[in-house]
Amino acid sequence: MSLSRGWTTKFLAVVRYEILWNIRKKKFLGMLVVALALTTLSLAGGHIVSAITGEPVQSNPDFVINSNVGLGGFGFFLFAIVTVMNTISAEFESGTIVSLLAKPLSRTTVFFGKLFAAFLTLLVTYSFLMTYMTIGGFVVYGSQNNLHLVPLSLLGALFSTLIWIAIVLFFATLFRSSLIAALGPFGIWLGTNIIGSILGVLAGQGWILTYIPGSGNTGSVGGPPAVGVAISTGTDSIGPNLINYILHPSWEVTYFKIRGITPGQPLWEPLYSEPLSTVISTSIAVALVYFITFVAISWFVFRRAQVTE
């Protein structure tokens, strides 16, 4: 029991050290400012469109549960970068890793303490965002439906971001460079989005993207694209898909590719269909596999990293 308490005390000390470091560097404050800016832009979208078109802002009772914390795929990626880009690498770059590891702390305790601190930072930030989006949704778009499902949006946002956190952490521990920790995952994010649009829409092979972090493949319910309800299979959409499943458990997602512009022929060719429950279980499994794999590799590399004065 004493050994367990001793490890817990050391673990919490690392968590406290990391959170205080983030506060001193104004990292957490910066995250909140960026979060407010992105969610405010999301809330103001209706008014921006109204100012351009002259149409009045329509009430939207589903705005909050469809907001995906007001961030979306790029927002999740950006927050992962900001949260852990220099969590490990900055210790090596500044040399503070020497004094940190000189303390009676195992590298495992240091690694997972820092990872848990990143999770807490995200949890606080996203909880604040959801509260802000809920209040803003009432003010801008009127009374909101199904607010009891808002925690699912928060859970999905955490899942979506933790995948990118694991990938950023991998680059940070492997190369010990904050710059590479940012540029490496950005290349992956950019590449998957560009390749996704080509494979999914033109080649009809978007199913591959279901197993890659990000937006994934795109299908629809109730008709072809632009007619039916769009559904993304990727890890970025875990929250919205969970909410849709609670509200519409019988939904079937159909995937299409462009047939070609031929007179008298439909533009979209259906490929295959699957239940929304399968989409959700697959995206959650993909998220867990990527997170566990990249965290395990990062932990292995960190434990064996050479530290010099």
Describe, in plain words, how this protein is organized in 3D.
It is a single chain. The protein is an alpha+beta fold and 309 residues long. The chain is 65% helix and 7% strand. It has one domain (2-303). It has ten helices and four strands, in the order H-H-H-H-H-H-H-H-E-E-H-E-E-H. A four-stranded antiparallel beta sheet has the order 2-1-3-4. Helix 1 packs across helix 6 (107-141) and helix 6 (107-141) packs antiparallel against helix 7 (150-175). The radius of gyration is 22 Å and the shape is globular.
Quaternary structure annotation: single chain
Number of strands: 4
- Supply the helix-strand structural class: alpha+beta
Mean pLDDT: 82
Rg: 22 Å
Helical content, roughly?
Answer: 55-70%
Portion in beta strands = 5-15%
Summarize the structure.
The protein has 309 residues and is of the alpha+beta class.
